[in-house]
Write a structure and sequence with these properties.
Helix content: over 70%
Oligomer: single chain
Order of helices and strands: HHHHHH
Shape: elongated
Length: about 150
Amino acid sequence: MKKYILFFAALFLTSFAYTQSNKEEVDLFQAAFGMEKKTVVADFVKPSAAQKDAFWKLYDEYETQRKELGKQRIELLKQYANQYQTMTSEQADTWTKKVIELQKKTDGLIVTYYGKIKTATDGLVATQFYQIEGYILTIIRAQILEAVPFLQKK
């Protein structure tokens, strides 16, 4: 597992075209869980037959929006990779504020879709969605934090 983390750290710390960011995110997810995200979600979230269509429609909407936020996260990581050795106090502050704002948006998106899924299905399915998305997000955030070098004061 450590070699995967190091491999993905190298991916994050090199420059890529913006259009590749979704592939990078998919690769990171597959390294962490060994399968595609939708498969992990399907193994954990169990809507009834009557709820399946509504759940997966909302989940696909959620994923579209989450992937946009994922692209922004990868862009911020690229920015950090390009600047962390020479980052000024002002640049560090600006970068950190962007990361905090993006984290709020990501967490808010999960909360928004928890409500939509609960309305379309029930509280059990919505809670399963909230739990698995929270778990996945925590694992991905931990792997990114582990792979990104800490900023050193000059």
